[in-house]
Every structure is written in structure tokens, then in C-alpha cells.
Design brief:
Layout (H helix, E strand, L loop, with lengths): L2 E6 L3 H12 L4 E5 L12 E2 L1 H10 L2 H7 L5 E6 L2 E6 L16 E2 L2 H14 L4 E3 L3 E6 L8 E5 L5 E8 L6 H6 L3 E5 L5 E8 L6 E5 L9 E5 L6 E6 L10 H11 L7 E10 L2 E5 L3 E2 L2 E3 L5 E2 L7 H21 L8 H22 L23 E2 L17 E2 L2 E2 H5 L4 E6 L10 E6 L8 E5 L5 E5 L2 H8 L6
Length: about 475
């Protein structure tokens, strides 16, 4: 084998997975068909749950240093400010949920993740376009061979396709995508330098008539750029040239064309929602946009994608390095595909004005209660249950997120004596924790409660399944 895991695609999904595998001692190679990291701001919203993931992966401080909060929307009409528009329902950090949503342009997030990957000894091989693959014995053998447009083949025990909505790996596998067009009206998204607008507001210019769509211009935190989003009538061919972008801004706002001093990146797309029919074929897994394509409304796509990586990373590590049963990998699709379907519905609802950005989009309520990895042994639990996200907070003198940080399982014992468990499981004890209540809570490496109850013997049997290695 050339590597244990080949990750195809160096977007946020592939980089996050590379980081998680590197810290587990798994040999992983990230390849990217482009000659550099993605240059645009496209996925600029990081939800609170993703901030918790980044805390664990060791990039939180770097993310906080390069991002910022979302500005208040300001509606313009005929060159005048006519009112504020709140993009999100406000939510203050709490002890058990300490992070707010953060605006970080996607290119900046990828720079932070790439630097962390290199710090852990990993790297990205650019200019490597995957064009085909063969699995040993229809996926039942020892590995996968991936071919590239240029350069040598790579042999890997497992392959993860994180190569976007047009995934070449997914097409090679013959896995279909089922979905719908969310909005037939195409969108222009561009990063630009603009004069004549303050950076304290997200500037919104409603349509001036049936022939034109809306325009929004959002200052990108931590940069000198603005993100331009403009909607066009169905069937329009969107011109991405600098002069065309200037004309759009001038036609839909009070700004002159020359106010757009520099166009740094531009793209067009039609909002679509689609879900891969399967997230796995043999030894090949789909993650991120290769598995689910969202409308950008509500900021769910990048966040759901990073959490795909976070779910898959610890399972690959357990199987490849700790001797966990290979069947553990079956739970990736079992857990993540329903979550992706739920997020598709939320994104589409936000795009169509049916769902408000707020509690539904923060992703703190996602859970795996129905997973085969989840065991709730209490007959009538109140509050936190197995399958739920494990909250932050203090237990004795220990902050729980500090205890969780790292590639291990953690036992939270509240008012109950902790049984003897393998040394690989970190144990935190205390008399009281309001977010948990009394009991034993075995927290998975990805921050979800795998087992909950008070019977130590049942917990020992759960650990005996071999998945906590």
C-alpha cells in the first residue's frame, strides 16, 4: 500500500479528515486536482457545532483570529438606507454551548486547516486529478487503486471522495444523486474590493423590477474584500468578467461601476439540493459535497461536510490503528446520511423563506439516537440522552471540552462511581453537572454520547464491543 487512506479533494472536508487521521497516527494522503487551494469565499459561515469540532482539531484559536461576527443587514433603496434586516436570530454563548457562529471566508478556513495538517506531518499533493479506480474483489479485498490524469497510481486501504458536488469518484462508482432544483434563478457569487460602502453592515439591494434580481454585498470579516451575490432571471447566462460584475453592481445599487476596484474571484451556480443514493461503495466513502449538495442559504453545506469528516475520521482510525471491528465503518452512512437529508431540508427551507436562520441552523441539536452505536439504558431519561451531543461545562474543576479534546473516548461520571475501563478512555468525575444530570455518560471521540446509564456492568459490556479502542 502507498497509504492507509487516500483523500480525494483538499476542501474543508478533505483537510479536516486529513487532520483527524494525522493526529490518530493514520497514514493519509490528500490529493487535489487544482494547483492550489480553493480561492473563493463561498462557504463563509461556521456554525457553533463546527466551532466545537475545530476546538477539538486544534484550530479554534486560528479560526477566531482570522474571522469575525456577522454584520447587521442594511436595506437600501434609491441610494438611501431604509431599514435594518436581522439575518439571524440572536443567540448568546452559554456554559454548555460556548461558541457563536463565525464568518470566515472559505479560502481562509482552508488555509488554517492546511497549516494544521502540515503541523501534524500531513500535506496536500496538488495537480492530481483522479480519473478512475479499481477495488480489489469488488471491495472485499485489501485495498483500492486510484488512477490519475498525471502521475503514478496510488494504492490505499480506503478512499474518501471529498471532491465536491461534481465528484469524479462518485461518478466512477456509479452512485446516483437524488434531488431537486431549489431555485431556477442563477446566482453570481464574487469576491471584490469595493469603495463607497461601510464594512459595518451587510448591504442589501432589493430588486428594482421584474427584470432584475436582488443584490447583496457583504463585508468579509478579516479581509478587505466584499462578497457580492446577485440573482438573475431563469435562463440567464451569467457573465463573470470584471466589467460585467461592475455593471451588475452599478445597475442594482447607487454605486458607480468604478467602485468595484478589483475582482478577485467569481462563480455562478443554480441552487440545488441533492443527496447521494449511498455514502459508501466497498472501501470508498463519500463525504461533503460529493455526498450532499445544498443551497448556500443558512450556511449548512460546509458545516455538514466538516462533520462528515469528523464522524468518519475516528472510525477509520479505530479500525486501522486500534483493531476495532471493520463493521464500525458501516455506521458512517447509517449516521450521516439522515443528518445530511435533514440539513438539505433546512437549507432549502431557508432559501425559500420557510425556515428562519437560528436554532435550526446552529447544528447543536443534531443527534444519533437511533444509531446502532447508541445505547440508552435508562427507561425514562430526563434531559441528555445517549446519541445527543455532549455539552460543555464544568465537572468538578475540569472543563468538559478540555477533557474531550483529543482522539479518545471520555467517561463522564456524575454522582456515580466510575468503573474500571481501558486506559484509552479518559475519565472525568464529579458530584453535579446540570447539563448531564446523574449517571455515567460515555462520550465518543466526535463529541456524542455513545452510552448512558447508571449500571456499570452494562457500560463494561458496551466497551467490550471493541469500538472504544
Amino acid at each position: 500500500m502507498n497509504t492507509d487512506v487516500l483523500i480525494v479533494g483538499a476542501g474543508p472536508t478533505g483537510l479536516a479528515l486529513g487532520i483527524d487521521l494525522a493526529r490518530r497516527g493514520v497514514d493519509a494522503l490528500v490529493v487535489e486536482k487544482a494547483d492550489r487551494l480553493f480561492p473563493g469565499s463561498r462557504g463563509k459561515g461556521l456554525q457553533p457545532r463546527t466551532m466545537e469540532v475545530f476546538d477539538d482539531l486544534g484550530v479554534l484559536d486560528a479560526i477566531l483570529s482570522v474571522g469575525g461576527t456577522y454584520p447587521v443587514g442594511m436595506v437600501w433603496q434609491d441610494g438611501e438606507r431604509v431599514g435594518e434586516h436581522r439575518m439571524f436570530d440572536p443567540a448568546e454563548p452559554t456554559e454548555d454551548s460556548p461558541y457563536n457562529a463565525r464568518m470566515v471566508p472559505q479560502w481562509r478556513t482552508q488555509e488554517v486547516l492546511s497549516a494544521r495538517l502540515e503541523e501534524l506531518g500531513g500535506w496536500v499533493s496538488f495537480g492530481r486529478e483522479a480519473v478512475g479506480l479499481e477495488q480489489d474483489a469488488d471491495g472485499d479485498g485489501d485495498g483500492v487503486t486510484v488512477r490519475f490524469a498525471a502521475g503514478a497510481d496510488v494504492r490505499a486501504r480506503y478512499v474518501v471522495a471529498a471532491d465536491g458536488g461534481r465528484s469524479a469518484v462518485r461518478r466512477t462508482l456509479g452512485i446516483g444523486m437524488t434531488g431537486e432544483t431549489v431555485d431556477p434563478n442563477p446566482l453570481l457569487v464574487a469576491d471584490a474590493r469595493i469603495t463607497g460602502l461601510d464594512r459595518d453592515n451587510w448591504h442589501i439591494f432589493p430588486p428594482r423590477g421584474a427584470a432584475t434580481g436582488y443584490l447583496s454585498i457583504c463585508p468579509l470579516a478579516g479581509t478587505e474584500d466584499f462578497q457580492i451575490v446577485a440573482q438573475f432571471p431563469e435562463g440567464t447566462r451569467v457573465d463573470l468578467s470584471p466589467d460585467a460584475v461592475r455593471e451588475v453592481v452599478a445597475a442594482r445599487s447607487h454605486l458607480a461601476p468604478e467602485s468595484v476596484t478589483e475582482l478577485r474571484w467569481a462563480s455562478d451556480f443554480r441552487p440545488r439540493a441533492a443527496l447521494a443514493d449511498s455514502f459508501r461503495s466497498g472501501r470508498v466513502f463519500l463525504a461533503g459535497d460529493a455526498a450532499h449538495v445544498h443551497s448556500p442559504a443558512g450556511g449548512q453545506g460546509l458545516n455538514t461536510s466538516v462533520q462528515d469528516a469528523y464522524n468518519l475520521g475516528w472510525k477509520l482510525g479505530a479500525v486501522l490503528r486500534a483493531g476495532a471491528p471493520a463493521a464500525l465503518l458501516d455506521t458512517y452512512e447509517e449516521e450521516r446520511r439522515p443528518v445530511a437529508a435533514q440539513m438539505l431540508g433546512i437549507s432549502t427551507g431557508v432559501h425559500r423563506g420557510e425556515v428562519r436562520r437560528g436554532e435550526a441552523t446552529r447544528q447543536l441539536g443534531l443527534r444519533y439516537r437511533e444509531s446502532s452505536l447508541t445505547e440508552e439504558t435508562r427507561t425514562a431519561p430526563n434531559g441528555l440522552r445517549a446519541g445527543d451531543r455532549a455539552p460543555d461545562g464544568k465537572l468538578g474543576e475540569t472543563r468538559l471540552f478540555d477533557a474531550f479534546r483529543g482522539p479518545h473516548w471520555t467517561l463522564v461520571a456524575v454522582g456515580v462511581e466510575a468503573p474500571r475501563l481501558p486506559e484509552s478512555v479518559r475519565v472525568v468525575t464529579g458530584d453535579e453537572q446540570p447539563s448531564y444530570g446523574k449517571g455515567l455518560f460515555l462520550v465518543r471521540p466526535d463529541g456524542y454520547v455513545g452510552w448512558a446509564g447508571e449500571d456499570a456492568a452494562k457500560l463494561v459490556r458496551y466497551v467490550g464491543r471493541g469500538i472504544t479502542r
